[in-house]
Amino acid sequence: MHMITLSSLSEDNLQKILSDNYVEPQWVSSNRKKILSKFSNLPSEVSPLYSKYTGLTVLKPEHVCFSNKEKVSVSKDLEIRLNEIKSSPSMLLIGSTVVHIFVPAELSEKGLIISTIQDAMTNHPELVKKYFDENYVNYEEDRFLALGSSAFQSGFFIYIPRNLIIEDPIRIVYSLRDDGTSSICRNLVLAEEGSKATIVQELYSSSSLTMTSDSNDNKLVGFDSRNTSDKVLNEHQKQQVGYFEFLECDVKSIAELEFITLQAMNMDTVCISNRKAFVGKDAKMSWYSGMFGSRLCRFKTDSVMNGSGAQSEDVQIVFGTNNQLFDITSNLDHVGFSTRGKVLVKSIVKDTAKSLFKGMIKIRKNAQTSEAYLAGHAILLNKGAQADAIPGLEIETNEVKATHSASVSQIDEEQIFYLMCKGLDRESAKREIINGFVEPLSRKMGPFIRAWISYLFENKWTGKPLLLKGDEVMEQIIEVEKSRYKETADIFEKHYKYR
What we know:
By secondary structure, the chain is an alpha/beta fold. Helices cover 22% and strands 35% of the residues. The chain has a domain of 306 residues. The strands form three sheets. Strands 4-3-7-9-12-14-16-18-20-22-23 form an eleven-stranded mixed beta sheet, with helices on one face. Strands 5-6-8-11-13-15-17-19-21 form a nine-stranded mixed beta sheet. Strands 2-1-10 form a three-stranded mixed beta sheet, with no helix packed on it. The protein starts with a strand and ends with a strand. It comes from Candidatus Nitrosocosmicus franklandianus. It holds the Pfam family SufBD_N. One of its GO terms (biological process) is iron-sulfur cluster assembly.
């Protein structure tokens, strides 16, 4: 087994981090090398404005290692999680290794496909190629987008055929390996016309973050001994573990797709994800995310509403503690006529954690009567915490409604004092204020999403492991959330109007 660092990754040694047993089509290999050749020359941030605030300085490419190792171990926690999800449409991936895939027979007969991206490119090339032909992606707009598009070692492929409505959520559980190596994933979801589905993605990582061997079997390749930044890591030097992802969703006419992400990686992991959704006529794409884990969490979401009447919604809750860094970007690109998009991001940061929200509304010249709303709000629980927000507008046409808003504020001491006078201690008072802060946002989610996010929020606040479990606490939270009202008010009622 060989290992390669992120700083030394190139089209010449790419094959060394891919499975020895995998043989991919020639068109895939050619695309990989073409895109990866541009990776090293691309900037980490596309805008000088963003560079001032970026947390990417935490990333140390010379300490991020990839390997083609296939053998993995399944932790007890993941075994428990697997037993809880295995009877529903689901997949469990550890690193680049598939541990479990299950598609119920009745859904398989109707055409539902859940597989690895590699299997899809080999067994269903017509579906994958059709997607690439129909949706243009500029791989040079972001260096990590180029990385995920070219150097992916694994990933999932989900195909939802025309008019298929899937009642149960499709569960995708992903965990990094416990040997300290990093992973690059490319994930693709194709929702055909009239289909409807919910996908729940859980992201975890192991607490074992040091290299265990420096033998010939674990030889690091691609290093230059003359370059001090690329010295060989030995067993006494800590690796930096990273999860790099490129996720694409293609939502055809009148289809509805919900994609829920629960990011619960440990506090030493770097988690970088680029996400794109292409939304067709009268279709709807909904992103729901709960961001809790990792040292650096950088999520960039682009919702491209191509068809007339297309809708997109991006709702995210961020909870940062200790020295965590959250870099959240959500862009709405209105291409088609009369499209609707909204972004709602709320961040809670404490200790010396930092959050950055960036968002851009683009309404193009053929997107008349479109409506867009973008909001990023943060609350600081102590003086060491920090938050910034950079919303923006680009409007190329008339007869549209577009609003953006942003705020950062300290927690209100008067509210804390009031609640303490009612019998709560200081920590309980803070939690009640935070619950009120995220309540308007969480009401826009379904009961199970709210329950999962509430469970992880509770675990993080109390210092418990960030792992979903079907325990008694979870059951109680689900029962409470089922009885609560789901908000249906029109978020576009209070727009400014541009003519």
